[in-house]
Amino acid sequence: MKPINDAHVAEPGLAVVEVAAADDETAFAVQELLATRWATASADRTVREPGVRLRCYLDLRQAAAPV
């Protein structure tokens, strides 16, 4: 994965979450759980290094849109 950029966490309330899991299904389930609570820039693929890794970006200042 590319390094986390200062812009990703430049303001209070911005966060980068990196998920390490045994499989894609688990990693995407965690991302989906986060997206139900906060505005999330979701990943559409995982990286294998070792295991499965996924990175998503959260804006804790914004609640997720109601479904």
Give structural notes.
With 67 residues, the protein is an alpha+beta fold. It is 18% helix and 39% strand.
List the helices and strands and how they pair.
Layout: E1 14-21, H1 24-35, E2 38-41, E3 47-48, E4 52-63
Antiparallel strand pairs: 1-4, 2-4, 3-4
Largest beta-sheet details: 4 strands, antiparallel
Helix content: 10-25%
Shape: flat
Mean pLDDT: 85
Number of strands: 4
Number of helices: 1
Category from helices, strands and their pairing: alpha+beta
Rg (C-alpha, Å) = 12 Å
* N-to-C SSE string, H for helix and E for strand: EHEEE
Question: How widely separated are the two ends?
Answer: 31 Å
Instruction: Report the sheet-strand fraction.
Output: 35-45%
Low-confidence stretches: none
Summarize the structure.
The protein is of the alpha+beta class and 67 residues long. It contains 1 helix and 4 strands, in the order E-H-E-E-E.
Q: What key attributes describe this structure?
A:
67 residues; flat; four-stranded antiparallel β-sheet; single chain; 39% strand; alpha+beta
